[in-house]
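Trying the structure run again after the queue cleared.
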Amino acid sequence: MQEKPARQPKGSNPSNSSPSEQQQIAIAIDALKRSYDTSENNRQKHDRESLKWTRRTAKAAIAYTVVTALLLAAGIYSTIQAWRAVDAANRSAEAAKDSVTAANRAADAAAAQTRIAEDTEKHQLRAYAYAKPPPQGVQNVVAGGKVLAVIAVRNSGQTPAYHLRMRGNTGVGVWPIPSLQTWREGPYGGNLVLNPETETTTGGKISSDVDTITQPDIESVHDGKTHRLYVFGTILYEDIFGSERYSDFCFAYYGDGPILTTMEYCEIHNNAN
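Done. Tokens:
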């Protein structure tokens, strides 16, 4: 018995499609193609726009980087120039300070030279009054008596010594004279003008203000080894420039007899200004 061929499903053979179906298929295919082309064109356009904006963004980034670098370079240059200007200003200030210092030193030196010249002139012209040892020695060195010394005062300067006055005293003390020796000189006496290169003719008389000399005092100064008879005092006067001057004096005598002439200057109390 012969088998029947299988039946094909309906519509499986395109040749069996109707013309209207074929036209619809063609239209759909054409629409799909157009949609694809449109989508492709849009994609390409989008890609072109994206590439364009990417390039623009890259160019803008490059330009921004260049501008930033230029601004940074300009800032660094400005900073260097400002630092140089500040350094130059500081150097100028130091130079000006050094100039002022040098000018001040020059002014101080000039003032010092002027003072030295003035002092030199004063030293050359001023009076110099001082005491000379008694020309007749120390008199009346007897027990119970008051020792007498007639001091000669001389002005060795080139101008007068004004308002010259003197005070002094005598007394027996240890030898060598102590460095902390105290003095009881009494009140000042006299008020005279002593001309330059002259000395008093009568001198200044000095004697013990209260004490009389004793025999043990006289014997203690015989050899001058342990005690001396001191004649001491101070001269005050004014020079031509109105400055008050002083001159201390101290003479140490020893020996025998009512008149002592052997003398040494004391190591202290012989100052002057």
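The CA atoms of residues 167 and 188 lie 4 Å apart. Worth checking whether this holds up in the mutant runs.
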